[in-house]
Each structure stands twice: as C-alpha cells, then as structure tokens.
Amino acid sequence: MIIDSTNQDLVHHLLIYECDPTAQFDDNNLPDDLCNEIYLQTAPCAYNGAIIWDVGGNDIVAFPEEAGYPIGGDFLIKYYMVQIHYNNPNQLSNRTDSSGIRFYIGKELRQYDLGYLTLGTTSTPRALAIPPKMERFIVDSYCPATATLGGERAEDEMCRHVMKYYPRMNNMYDCLMMNSPQIWNSMMNTSSSSFNDSKLMEWLLNLTWTLEQAVQWQEFYNIASRVLLYGASSNLQFKFMSDLPKYQDLKPIACTKDQTINQTTSSQTTTMNESISYTSRIRQNIMIILI
Length: 291
Prior knowledge:
four-stranded mixed beta sheet; 4 helices; Copper type II ascorbate-dependent monooxygenase N-terminal domain-containing protein; five-stranded antiparallel beta sheet; alpha+beta; PHM/PNGase_F_dom_sf
C-alpha cells in the first residue's frame, strides 16, 4: 500500500474491488469521481472485494511461497476499482492525494491463485443497529458450509486467515448476514409488504434508549431471523434463516495494537489487520484500474 505521507491524517481506508468479468468500459474514459456521482457506472465493480487496507494495517503484505494474487495474463478479471475513504472531520480543503497500491510481480508462476473472502455482516442498518454507550454488544454472523463448498479437496486446500485463502474460488467473495426484513417490520410494527432502508434508519435514529431497552435489544438480536447472502456479483445467493446454529462463544480478548500484526515463521508470511471500520464524515473517491 502506498499512503500519501502528507495525507495520513485523512486517508482512513482503501479497498480494491475486482470488477465483474462481464464489465465493459471505455478504456479511454474510465470512471473517476466521487462514489455517489458514478455509482451506476461502477455497479459491476461494487461487490467483489479483494485487497483491503485501513489505519493500523501493514503497508507491505507478503504471500506464502506457494500462492500469489493473480493479475494480468489470462486471468478473467480485466478491470479493478480503487475506492479510498477519507475521514475529514475538520472539513479541511485544498488537499490532494496520491495514495494507492503497488503490485510486485514474481518471476515464476506460483502453484495456487490466492483469493479474498469477506465474512461478517453487511454495512447496513439491517445488520448493525447497536444501542449507544454499550460497552459490549454481540452481533452473530453465520456462514454455512454450503456457501464455501467448492475449490480443491480438503486435503489440498489451505486457508491463511479469514481474508486471504487459496486455492482461489472465482465464484466466492463474500458471505454476509443481516437481519431479515420481516423481523424489522415486526419491530417497527408495520405490515408493509416492501422494505425501506431509509425508513428503518429514520426509525432507529428516533428511538430513545434506556439501559433496559438496550438489554432487550441484545435479546432481539440473539433470536432475530437472518438473511444470508454469499457468492459473487454475477451470481449472488440468498438464504433465509429463521435462527442460527447454537455454539459456545469464545472468550473476548482485548485488542491492542501489538495484536494486529502476526508474524508467521512457517511460511514467512506477514499478515495484516484488514477489518474495516466506518466513521462519520467519510468522503469516498473511485477510479478504475485497467489491466
């Protein structure tokens, strides 16, 4: 990752998306603007997430000797989208940025193609509606075995961590969850046959929270029905789940900066903390990379 040294106070996180193989663009006039201005043009590039960096992550990531991220050649992805999120709470102006990413191409083709898999919830109020001032609030997310069925046999497959894995599956990028529209309609006491995220957001912002209500909210999340979505942009799969499998929670461990960097000597690989956190007043820019 190349983070402009003059803008380390503004660059919050950076994402690389793989555009759908069917995406078509004018190579002489690629989209490059604010996210909200070109979201229709870049729709084929808005789902299949790949490389992610955020504040606190490592600038250089080395892959294991037997795996590498495929790019160019006969690889099916032609276009990539760079999305940079800027956090500018002081509303500073007249700043330009040249942050981005640099690929180091190896001389020899590696045995496995490496892929990225995102687990967790969607970044919407349907999935994450957490009461204010909560010291601890649990949001469960579940990814069934059927979602990740594919690729090489178990004896040949080796997962590095939750974000990077190989052998790569070209039809799997995300496995995400959110509370079902039905359960939200029930909470809002509405019988509407359609669901509106804007109305949900308005309803949530108008709630008056007490400690008792916050405790009840955790109970609501524990039993809420979910919608699971997984796959790739060209073939998203949706599954309704009335409840989640029962399991025993792991003991929580306080996260410190030293724990975000993990050196593994077996493969001489450096991994980075690639969690995404969204803050207020984030400005987003997009550009397309052509290979």
